[in-house]
Structure formats: C-alpha cells, structure tokens
Amino acid sequence: MSLDCTHSTGVADAKLTHAQVIWMSELAARAWRNGLGTMRRIATAGAPDDPDWTLSIATIAAPCEFSMFAGLDRVAMVVGDDPIMLTINGSASHLTHLDRIRFAGEDLVRAQPTRGQTQLLNLMVRRTSVHGEIYVRRISGTSVLHPGDAEVWVVLSGSVTTDFGVLSRWDTLRLNSLPHNVSGAASLAGIRISPALEENQ
Predict the structure, then answer these.
(1) Both 43 and 55 in a single domain?
(2) PANTHER family in the record, alphabetically (predicted)?
(3) pLDDT in tens, the chain (201 residues)
(4) In terms of Cα–Cα distance, which of 104, 120, 126 is closest to 194?
(5) Which region, left, alpha or beta, applies to residue 39 given φ > 0 means left and ψ of -120 to 50 means alpha?
(6) pTM, to two decimals
(7) What is residue 128's three-state secondary structure?
(8) Measured between alpha carbons, how far is 132 from 144 in angstroms, rounded to an integer?
C-alpha cells in the first residue's frame, strides 16, 4: 500500500497532493514471468497491460536466468549487500553494491550470486516510448528533491524525513509535479524518466 494524500483539504497539506510514499514493507513479493525469482513492484506508469516503465526490486537467491521482455530496455543496480555476476549474451560482469548495468529485454541474462542472496533495483522502459536512468544522490541535512531531477527516489541506506514520515531502506518517494523538502543522512537512487531517443521511436 502507498500513502497518497490526494484527499487532503487543508492549505498546509496541499503539497502532499504532489507526492506519494511507497513503503517497502507493504509490497507483496511476486514471481518473475519465468518463475525463477521474485520481485516487489515499486512503481509503474502507462497502460496496465503494456506499461511505459516499471520499477521493482528483485531478490536473487540462486543462479537463474532473467525473464525476457521484447521491446524493453533495462537498467539494473545492485542494492543488496552482496555482489552478483551477470552474464549477458555470454559476457560476464561482476557487480558490487551500487554498480549499474544496462541491457536489452531481449538479451539472454544469467544471474549468479557470488556470496549470498542479493537484491537488484530493476528499471524496465518501453524503448519506443521513454528512456530511463538510475543514479545515486547522497544527502546530509536538509535537501530539496526535484521531479525534474528524478520522478522516483528510493532510499538505499540511511533514513529520510519527509512530510509523510521517516523513510528507511528501500522505501520510495514518488513526486508528481512539485519539489519536496526532505532531511536526513542517506543515499538515494533517483529514477529519471524522459522521452525516448529519436532513433528508438
């Protein structure tokens, strides 16, 4: 369940209509399309059966192959504590905490945890509609999160105080239109969605 104050009536609460919190503890685990792993869906946009983009956290507990998604581009970031080996079309990459990798939904991807189970922040975008990026921002003290910088902000470590309460690891703040003031000491993943590059349209 998410907290979205779209029905607030007081003037002081008006800014809450422009943001939404998604609590990690309330997201249900779902099986991957191929049944070989699990994920928790954080946010999505577009048609329910054909979204423009989807953001989730996947748990990789054992060697497995990723599901394939024609027409999508993907960005994965290691957000768990342990590293992982991703082999994409036969080329292996060893990824540690906060490493990112980009690949196509049609690629053959095999995941191999190298110590214990770990988690990936997984962004999938429809290639002909939008372009997606994940980057890391570290805050200390009071900061302003702008939707122009990133529409979605996921807490990676530390904690962030917002108008909705305190967000901790893997809780998410989704901005609709206005900036949002936060405070704390934390690392955040910013998810930036922009129109598709012309060559992909």
Answers:
(1) yes
(2) PROTEIN VES
(3) 444 443 332 333 444 567 899 999 999 999 998 988 899 999 999 988 889 999 999 999 999 999 999 999 999 999 999 999 999 999 999 999 999 999 999 999 999 999 999 999 999 999 999 999 999 999 999 999 999 999 999 999 999 999 999 999 999 999 988 999 999 999 999 999 999 975 565
(4) 126
(5) beta
(6) 0.89
(7) coil
(8) 21
Q: Are 125 and 52 in contact (CB under 8 A)?
A: yes
Nearest-angstrom CA–CA distance, 103 and 74: 5
**How many structural domains are present in the chain?**
2
Query: Identity (one letter) of the amino acid at 104?
Result: A
Asked if residue 83 and residue 34 are part of one domain, the reply reads yes
Q: Which domain holds residue 85?
A: 28-127
Give the integer Cα–Cα distance in Å for 68 and 54: 14
Decide if 65 contacts 110 (C-beta within 8 A). yes
Stated length of the chain: 201
- What is the rounded CA–CA span in Å between residue 120 and residue 61? 11
